[in-house]
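Fig. S4 source data, part A: sequence.
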Amino acid sequence: MVRLGIIGCGGMGGYHAKRFTELQQVELVGVCDVLQEKATALAEQLGVKAYTHHQDLLPAVDAVCICTPPRHRLDVMLDSARAGKHVFAEKPLALNLAEADLMVEAARQAGIKLMVGYVLRFTQPHKYLHEVFSSGELGRLVNCWTRRYMPCDMSNRWYGDQAQSGGVLLDFGSHDIDLLCWKGGEVRSVYAQFDRVRPTIRSDEHAQVLMTFQQGDMGTVDVSWSSHLSHFSFGVVGSEGTLISDAAGLVHKKLWNGEEQVIDTAALAKAQPPETIQEHFVRCIEQDSEPLVTGAQARSVLAVILAAQESGRTDQVVPVR
């Protein structure tokens, strides 16, 4: 049994708390937020104890799920690591590489699991596309891309403050950067453009990024909070075949000299539900195995995004450090 606590009782904290309580091998011990009313409300909903300081929660748990805004995450993460508690952290890991490096090193020294919440790896159609590509059936990677539009006015929320959220690419599009790095590996350089559409916005709300991977293949991310329509598409072009998904969860697959196939990945997920990100974190603790998304990988995603933001400021191709 893994004793777990939630730190940060906003939307994502409440979401993860409910998902973890569904797992038989998890005991949700308590929830914590610096705002008493938020901690109390979630605690009463779940029938657990409310805390207002994470250090008071740590002695009672084996692991924590950190869902604070990223600018408040460093001290919580470091204290958790020093206390020997495994950490599931919401994305992005941090707003800068200095803090990300401190977190990764703290986890390494403490010997704890540090997993970051890049949830798209655990959902369809992403799992199917990755499995087919990893099998070698598509040949070498030529190009991969995502286009994900989520119309949302962030003007009056902390997400709409660049200093607090890092803007649409870091807060939202880091999921997409992670997906493409899952295919292409290490990124060599990026070129990016950003836009702030609404007059009251204080953060980037539309971004497009061209990534060049170390082997010379390409990846493109196009994300938006300002689009008037929702949209999602994702694809992989290989030397031997192509996969393209659509918003309905259908994947179109064609190999050289073959017929086009259409795969209903929603039906695949219904027939064989994939492991959830919460289940995966708990299993890694119980089996002492490496998480699918480590702190080091999340740090690499952050490095790509910071390089993209520099590219947007300078209108230059920027190497990823």
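Fig. S4 source data, part B ends here. The domain at 2-112 is CATH 3.40.50.720 (Rossmann fold).
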